[in-house]
Amino acid sequence: MRPLALLPRPGRARRAVLLCAGVLTGGVFGLAFWVDRFGRRERVTDADALVVLGARVLPGGVPSGALVARVEQAAALYHRGVAPWLLLSGGVGAHPPSEARVMLQLAVAAGVPASACVLEEDSHSTEDNARFSARLLRERGARRVVVVSDPYHLLRARQGFRRQGLEVATSPASIAGRMRAVDRAYWTVREAFALLLHPRLLWARAPGGR
């Protein structure tokens, strides 16, 4: 075996690749840790509106477990008096009707009056959720919101809504019994990659820089 000192040094290109790989790996797992820690905490404050982010609708218009859990959490907050109305955000995915319309049915079944629900049915991404919801919120004079979604989704969602100039608190929907630890880890790392691919989100601050 050749002594380490006599081994050829890697070329500049190879060193650059190794450095980038190290930075990327550290960045992803560092962000994943932040995503996970952030999503585990309840950050509810009194707000002008509750914003519920959509999730998959199954064939026949059946709500996915994520969709049910998000609406149940928002309904509980509504009944606690956190906010006077709900904005249900989600367009038509692989199966109609829209996520928002399915959430409306769930919300009414959970005791939320239909008159206290506003639908946003055009969005197909978290960025859409924030942009289209912000327009409806401003039309109704809402500036402070509580965003409800799965825990691993909340950091990116909060940053997206902050970029729209809103004051944002977050509330995690329960994933107990519907998501294995390995699945949660996968989605958490996936969210970290999404944040790395959209670094402008990381710099979003609350109105007034808070």
Write the topology of this structure:
Elements: H1 12-39, E1 49-53, E2 57-58, E3 62-63, H2 65-79, E4 86-89, H3 99-109, E5 117-120, H4 126-139, E6 144-149, H5 154-163, E7 167-172, H6 181-197
Parallel strand pairs: 1-4, 1-6, 4-5, 6-7
Antiparallel strand pairs: 2-3
Helix pairs in contact: 1-6, 2-3, 4-5
Characterise this structure.
The protein is of the alpha/beta class and 210 residues long. The chain has a single domain (43-201), classed as Rossmann fold, CATH 3.40.50.620. The chain contains 6 helices and 7 strands; from the N terminus they run αβββαβαβαβαβα. The strands form 2 sheets. Strands 5-4-1-6-7 form a 5-stranded parallel β-sheet, sandwiched between helices. Strands 2-3 form a two-stranded antiparallel sheet. It is globular, with a radius of gyration of 20 Å. The relative contact order is 0.17.
Using brief descriptors, characterize the structure shown.
single chain, membrane, Cell_Envelope_Assoc, alpha/beta, two-stranded antiparallel sheet, 45% helix, Rossmann fold, DUF218, five-stranded parallel β-sheet, 210 residues
What's the shape? globular
The proportion of residues forming helix, as a percent range, comes to 40-55%
Query: Sheet with the most strands?
Result: 5 strands, parallel
DSSP strand count: 7
Weakly predicted, low-confidence segments:
15-23
CATH first level: which class? Answer: Alpha Beta
How large a portion of the residues is in β-strands, by DSSP E? 5-15%
What's the domain count?
Answer: 1
Terminal residue distance: 58 Å
Structural class: alpha/beta
Q: Which CATH architecture?
A: 3-Layer(aba) Sandwich
Q: Give me the Rg, rounded.
A: 20 Å
Q: Report the mean per-residue pLDDT as an integer.
A: 88
How would you name the CATH homologous superfamily? HUPs
Could you tell me the CATH topology label: Rossmann fold
- The neighbouring-strand order within the major sheet is 5-4-1-6-7
Number of helices in the DSSP assignment: 6
Query: H/E element string?
Result: HEEEHEHEHEHEH
